[in-house]
Amino acid sequence: MDLLKFITAGSVDDGKSTLIGRLLYDTDSILDDQLEAIQRANRKNDDGTLDLAILTDGLKAEREQGITIDVAYKYFHTDRRKFIIADTPGHIQYTRNMVTGASNADLAIILIDARKGVVEQTRRHSFLVSLLAIPNILVCINKMDMVDYDKAVYDKIRADYERLAGNMEKTQVDYIPVSALKGDNIASSSSNTPWYEGKPLLEFLETVEVNRQPQTQQARFPVQWVIRPQTVELPDYRGYAGRIVGGDFSVGDRVVALPSGFMSTITRIELAGENLQIGENGASVIVHLADDIDISRGDMLVKADEQPALSQSFESDICWMDTKPLDLGQTYFLQQHGKITKVKIQDIVYRIDIQTLEKSASDSFGLNDIGRVRFKSADPLAFDHYASNKANGGAILIDSRNNLTIAALMIDKPVDN
What we know:
Elongation Factor Tu (Ef-tu), domain 3, six-stranded antiparallel barrel, 22 strands, about 35% strand
């Protein structure tokens, strides 16, 4: 069954948690003990109905404040599709949480309060969605019950957002008027919006065709493990295990090992003990080559005519996740797939003002800051532009002093020395 991973994002009190709770409730995805816990919690809406937002309250502090701080993951399915939801925080100070939740999403639901329209946080979240190359956006104009289901309100908000979306390349944007509290246009079409002729939210999620083409064009095989049993039964066995992260490989393909540049030919592809003619994108396989060339964990196999950038100097968009500020004098570890290399940040190209989205020069970078920096790595890194291949354009930065992950990277381009 197909899987759709999506995030919800919006300003505080736009109704993200209520929307997710409604989806879980309307798809019978709430366990009996969970429902009993909600009833015992005695959290009710103004009309006396159960407060479904409690289903995504993961932390006690969140429940006490009535907000979502952490990323809350929820799972449900219908007869047509499986779903993973990441409910991300609305506050500016939890930008890093949204980046984490959105990193692997296929679709983003941007919630807009019908009473408030497009606000600064709408622009911020939309910018982050664009930065993370999420190909589909669904704008849910929520709390339509609070504006008497007025079509003119919906039309104005949609027009305002369409102007904002004009700068988002390769992004499909759709719109639905909803009331998460009342259930309008969630599991079924609402009689309160006869002017809306589109699908209700659940049907939309079940049928949306996610644009994944940019992620599947060029074949990449990061080597996670070199398998050499050297047993009596398998004295000459040498296989390279890993997961294909774009395109596919076939027996007979001419490939290049990076960063060494040595070439060989694929003679065999194994999956769960079976031999394949083609290893497809996303498959975890073992690849055999015709030549015993020097390949180690962290190296990458690519087709000879589909090579990525290979450089020790490159620019990357970055979201800083550590309470300690960025230190231009510090040596960090960069991890991409199984490869770990030492890097230094040579320069901060710019920092983005998360309130105005303007780019400005900066000599400092702290918690939740987003911007662009230039890296110099000890070893050559094989990468693609993040928007073209998230798996091979994404990486993390690690503090070499304590091994904590301190930043998420969206690599852009090599830099000429």
